[in-house]
Amino acid sequence: MQGGDPHIRALMRTISASEANGPRPYSLLYGGQQVHDLSRHPEKCVTIVTGPNKGNCSTAAGRYQIINNTWFEIAPRYHPKPPGNMMFWSAYSFEAEYQDVVVYRWLNDRKVWGTDISQLLQKGKINDVLRRLSPTWTSLGYGIETNSISNSLPNIYQKMLQEELKVVNQPASVIMTPKRSF
Asked: Domain residues for 141?
């Protein structure tokens, strides 16, 4: 995704680092399998093998590990390209660019989160943001499940933010000029 608020973009990269850290995060299913068709949410139910939800299944998929019910709820609100067929169960594309746009818009919705996430991030309140988002993304450190990098997420966010701010602050000529290869 290009453009937009660098604080939200850094947060999105942080969520991805915690939820789907790998070479092909957009096509990642819960449990590590890859899916090839992203024309819609994969809706593949994968059995959870550890943690408090062991034995249940998860449909989490993509860079942000969004479960199918959440996608069905948020895609109609935030997806930039509604399906041509406007029937109730129309499929919204789950392609990489749409995962990013939908999550970006969702994180910017003050009504959903009860606060301005970007403003909290600009005030340096990353831990408050992670706590607020942890019911949605349990790996963020305040939910029912954590992972090996949950405790490092505030530092990961700071690193991602510095990278995002560097891109924002580059002169257009640097961004637009292709690098020469000799």
From this structure: 6-21+68-170
- Sole residue written with tokens 């924002």: 168
| Of 1, 65, 72, 79, nearest in space to 31 by CA | 65
**Burial class (CB within 10 angstroms; exposed 0-12, middle 13-18, buried 19+) of 140:** buried
**CA–CA separation, 87 and 65 (whole Å):** 25
172 CB-contact burial (10 Å; exposed 0-12 / middle 13-18 / buried 19+) = exposed
Would the pTM of this model clear 0.85, i.e. be above it?
A: yes
Yes or no: say if 65 and 30 are a contact pair by the CB < 8 Å rule: yes
Contact indicator for 132, 113 with CB cutoff of 8 Å? yes
* Distance separating alpha carbons of residues 120 and 97, to the nearest angstrom: 25
Predicted confidence (pLDDT) per residue in 75-115, tens digit:
999 999 888 765 555 689 999 999 999 999 999 999 999 99
The total number of structural domains that make up the chain? 1
Answer yes or no: is 53 within a domain.
Answer: no
In a domain, 122, yes or no: yes
* Residue 17 is assigned to a structural domain of this protein: yes
What does the alpha-carbon distance between residue 107 and residue 9 come to, in Å, rounded to a whole number? 10
